[in-house]
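Quick note —
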Amino acid sequence: MVARHHHACLVCDPGVPARGWAVGSREGAERPLDLLEEGSPVTTLTGVPEQVMTIAFSGPASGDLLPWGARAWRDLEDAVRRLAPGPGQLLLRGHHKHILADGPACLRWLDHCSETSLSCGIALTPASMLAASMIDARDDHLTRLFEYLGPRCDAVILEDVTHLDDETIQGLAVGSGLLDGGLVGRLLEANVPGDIPVVVHAADLEQAERWLWPD
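Predicted structure written out below.
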């Protein structure tokens, strides 16, 4: 862990596969972090450990429902209420094919949690919220995501990304994909409070810092 520009920079274990979204457990600045796999969304969980910041994908809707349909939102809320997490214990991360598909959806979730005293925050995950159709305009989309969610998120997960075809994107370790790390670093500094933990999918700390702060 290192403090850089007032951010705690936490690097995923080197054993995490280079291809795919960042997953695994990591000792955090104040407590452990547990990043769950895409195939284990919050709707499948039976519990979350105490004293651990658990970060899960919101998950797709069940059956043939659209991921952003009313039933999907009810299922998501029911899953979180069933887990009954304490403050700061459970965060959801977005994905363009999941319930929390974009910035407005994440803000809607945060507003709903505030209105209903539901204890569940958001981890800003800009790479997984880019659809393949957004890649050409990725800098604009990244800027909007940080402006929307940076001030209200409880963690940030930074990954790189590439697109395999017109429909599919894939997560990568930073510096091995299409994203401009210098831009991401500037957006992080401009929009995310300094005490928010930042998880970087990288082989080591030096790689993470070179990507985010190339100068």
